[in-house]
UniProtKB/TrEMBL annotation:
Gene name linked to the record: ftsY
UniProt-recorded name of the protein: Signal recognition particle receptor FtsY
Keywords: Cell membrane, Cytoplasm, GTP-binding, Hydrolase, Membrane, Nucleotide-binding, Receptor
Main location: membrane
Matches recorded under SUPFAM superfamilies: Domain of the SRP/SRP receptor G-proteins, P-loop containing nucleoside triphosphate hydrolases
GO process annotations (BP): SRP-dependent cotranslational protein targeting to membrane
Role noted for this protein: Involved in targeting and insertion of nascent membrane proteins into the cytoplasmic membrane. Acts as a receptor for the complex formed by the signal recognition particle (SRP) and the ribosome-nascent chain (RNC).
Catalytic activity, as annotated: GTP + H2O = GDP + phosphate + H(+)
Domain SRP54-type proteins GTP-binding residue range list: 101-302
Topology of this chain in the membrane: Peripheral membrane protein
Domain called Signal recognition particle SRP54 helical bundle: residue spans: 4-85
Subunit structure: Part of the signal recognition particle protein translocation system, which is composed of SRP and FtsY.
Homology family: Belongs to the GTP-binding SRP family. FtsY subfamily.
Length: 302
């Protein structure tokens, strides 16, 4: 919980004061109250559609429960935000194979924090007692392979790699076999994130997907799309692009520590109907947290 509070401090600073002020200053729930709340939420990048939906739901509650004092509405707002964010306990957790090898495919645009996230995730899984292997599936950039090696060393896990320019699907094929041979618990596959040629990239990702599925029929257990929370609505565009084309099952939102607009998590959750599985709250190896909608909202409001 503290990690959440610390990591979300920018959003908190920008948001909580305003909300507190609104709920204590206003003495009744009128149009001016709703308008101000709307403004605050939009300012935090919660997204216009979500804000309108939320305000509508609050109006219904106010009528139904005959609420007059804004203070009484505050816990209901928190409750509604948690509701909007959560896809239920189950979907927020990373899926794993019932037994045998679990495979995660990690996709996203260059620079969003994909490599860092893979390193952090490897570290987390190792701390949970799992054995982990990484696959350097971004063969487009030499630097990507090197970066993954660096994170592999930090986390103390091996990286299966080939040279720059080699077929990414072949690297993944090798990695799946190595993972099986070594009896590894979790294989995490990096992929390319160049956007100059979207069609080509989507085809590449689909080929990787098919190779994995052919080797392990129920895999990949998750296709995680990494998004940079500081890019706001841009992140939403990327979510739409990848979500439609690559069978994404969950989102990882990075750099939440670097934005005052953490409400983007709520917007993306709503627009994409994809669960947020994890959030990045810093650059260090232990700055990746499993997402918990209740903790998230509490970190913002309490
Ligand atoms: P990739 O191109 O998607 O693989 O991106 P990288 O993993 O290389 O990360 C790009 C930059 O974002 C690096 O400077 C990372 O340290 C930084 N970064 C990644 N995740 C986070 C995060 O959660 N918080 C902060 N503040 N920086 C992050």
């Amino acid at each position: 919980t503290n990690k959440f509070k610390e990591g979300l401090s920018k959003t908190r600073d920008a948001f909580v004061g305003k909300v507190e002020d609104l709920f204590s200053r206003r003495k009744k729930i009128d149009e001016a109250f709703y308008e101000e709340l709307e403004e605050i939420l939009i300012g935090a990048d919660v997204g216009i559609n979500t804000v309108l939906k939320l305000i509508d739901e609050l109006r219904v509650e106010v009528r139904k429960r005959k609420i007059e004092d804004p203070k009484e509405l505050r816990p209901i707002l928190t409750e509604k935000l948690v509701e909007l964010l959560s896809g239920g306990e189950e979907t927020e957790r990373l899926k794993t194979a019932p037994d045998g090898l679990t495979i995660y495919l990690v996709v996203g645009v260059n620079g969003v924090g994909k490599t860092t996230t893979i390193g952090k995730l490897a570290h987390r899984l190792k701390q949970d007692g799992k054995s982990v292997l990484l696959a350097a599936g971004d063969t487009f950039r030499a630097a990507a392979i090197e970066q993954l090696e660096v994170w592999g060393q930090r986390a103390g896990v091996d990286v299966i790699r080939q040279g720059q320019g080699s077929d990414p699907a072949a690297v993944i094929f090798d990695a799946v076999h190595a993972a099986k041979q070594r009896n590894v618990d979790v294989l995490i596959c990096d992929t390319a994130g160049r956007l100059q040629n979207k069609v080509n990239l989507m085809e590449e990702l689909n080929k990787i997907f098919r190779v994995i599925r052919r080797e392990v029929p129920e895999a990949p257990h998750e296709v995680l799309l990494v998004l940079d929370a500081t890019t706001g609505q841009n992140a939403l565009q990327q979510a739409k692009l990848f979500g439609e084309k690559t069978g994404v099952t969950g989102l990882v939102l990075t750099k939440l520590d670097g934005t005052a607009k953490g409400g983007i998590v709520i917007a993306i959750r709503q627009e994409m109907e994809l669960p947020v599985k994890m959030v990045g709250l810093g650059e260090k190896i232990d700055d990746l947290q499993p997402f918990d909608s209740e903790q998230f909202v509490n970190a913002l409001f309490l």
